[in-house]
Amino acid sequence: MATQNGALAMDRADDFGTLEKGKFANLIILEKDPGIDVSNFRSISHVKRTGVLSEIDNSNEQYRK
Q: What 3 state SS string does the chain have?
């Protein structure tokens, strides 16, 4: 679970649930605001997974499964 409440429910708030130094986090960075148009979730520019930041090449649809 990615939310603070989910982490609290699983008694894992020390590990994840909020963005803080020392906690686990997987992130997506978008070029466009999904609050304006939900299709903007497709504008992924970077992914941070298991501590590694990767730039996304949208031409081959990587990470869009």
A: CCCHHHHHHCCCCCCCCCCCCCCCCCEEEECCCCCCCHHHHHCEEEEEECCEEEECCHHHCCCCC
